[in-house]
Amino acid sequence: MQHVDRLIRSASLNGYVELVKSMGRDPYAFLRGVGLSARLLENPETLIPSRAVRELLEVTAQATGAEDFALRLAAGRKFSNLGPISLVLKEEPTPRQALDTLCRYLKLLNTALITHIDDAGQAVVIREELLPTPRLATRQSVELAVGVMFRILRELVGPQWRPLQICFTHRPPVDAAPHRAFFGRNPMFNQEFNGLVCAAADLQMPRTPDNPGAARFARDYLDAALQRRGEGTGAACRELIMALLPGGRCTAQQVARHLGMDRRTLHRHLGVEGQVFSALLNQVRSELVVRHLRDSDLPLGEVAGLLGFSAPSSFGHWFRAAFGCSVTEWRRQAAE
Predict the structure, then answer these.
(1) Cα Rg for the chain, rounded, in angstroms?
(2) 168 CB contacts (<8 Å, ≥6 apart)?
(3) Tens of pLDDT, residues 262-294
(4) 33, 268, 274, 293: which has the highest count of C-beta atoms within 10 A?
(5) Sign (positive/negative) of CA torsion 120, 124, 125, 130?
(6) Collapsing DSSP states into helix, strand and coil, what is residue 141?
(7) SS3 of 126, please?
């Protein structure tokens, strides 16, 4: 099945040129290398391929030797970089309501990013996941997404705010000091999700709106933009598969229920787009397993669970059918 590239606002690279220049390198050469023109960065609302952005971040981090390159980029982020969405977020009465609003309009910022917010007693878990891109590392893109979320929350809660935990699924860097300096505490690596764990009380702190008129205008504009940018059933399925797999409940019936339809209707809609649910499920699993095996040191039992398998043996059978070798053989070949 052909992979469909997704789009992201060019504002995601705000400050990139200046940062790379400050490191003594040529940002325009890196941009050309991934097929991006510097002119595309002039208008922050211009949509550019997310794959090119991911590749650019990885190439730049490797060439400059800066493992924390994405966090350096996130450090320069301002609330205004979100565009009209920032006006709406500022007028929400609590940071938690602002987060819910951000999730609603996220597709207008980055169609490849999925944000889930889960209540866990006195804590709130914010999960940031990127839709997989075959054969492309995502470490820098993930750290940029989590870093930007951290900056947004500091804007909403207060400049001294810190999360309870910062989690990444990939391996730790050689030197974690820059990560510790950015977040104000040690991040945790080789975890089961990417994102932040926050105190629920912090996100319920009241905020004082100061320009509700502008917020109403911006909300109307954003709602209209969402309607214009409707996505097909296949794209919605991929996002739900990503969200449901770790819980082991990713079936066509479950996905259909989340989409407000029955299973037969889901299959019919997918058929119109030339897609099949089982193929979508296998595609997402295949892309995710490569990311976990390549970028993390998670035990195979945990990887199996994150892919929705109830037993390591069923995971092993699926992997051999999909990749033609065992997981151990694949890891050895990848290391070589």
Answers:
(1) 20
(2) 142, 143, 146, 187, 188, 189, 190, 191, 194
(3) 889 999 989 988 999 999 999 999 988 998 898
(4) 293
(5) positive
(6) helix
(7) strand
pLDDT at residue number 230: 61
Residue 2: which pLDDT band, with cuts at 50, 70 and 90? very low
Q: Is 1's pLDDT higher than 60? A: no
Evaluate whether 259 touches 299 at the Cβ level (below 8 Å): no
11-42 tens-digit pLDDT: 999 999 999 999 999 999 999 999 888 888 88
Considering only CA atoms, which of 235, 256, 211 is closest in space to residue 91?
211
User: What CA–CA distance (Å, rounded) separates 142 from 71?
Assistant: 10
Which residue do the tokens 């949509």 mark? 47
How many CA within 13 A on the CB side of residue 267? 7
Element (H, E) at 158: none
- Alpha-carbon gap, residue 204 to 201, rounded angstroms: 5
Q: Cα separation of 145 and 195, whole Å?
A: 9
| Distance, first Cα to last Cα, the chain | 28
Do 225 and 106 form a contact (C-beta atoms < 8 A)? no
Residue whose token pair is 């037993």: 311
Query: DSSP code of 3?
Result: P
Extract the runs of DSSP E, i.e. beta strands, from the chain.
7-9, 47-49, 113-120, 123-130, 165-167, 195-199
The tens digit of pLDDT for each residue in 163-211 reads: 999 999 999 999 999 999 999 999 999 999 999 999 999 999 998 777 6
3-class DSSP assignment, residue 119:
strand
Name the residue among 287, 273, 233, 285 with its Cα closest to residue 255. 233
C-alpha span between 169 and 194 (Å, rounded): 6
DSSP conformation class of 92:
S
Calpha distance 31→19 (Å, rounded): 13
> SS3 of 210, please?
coil
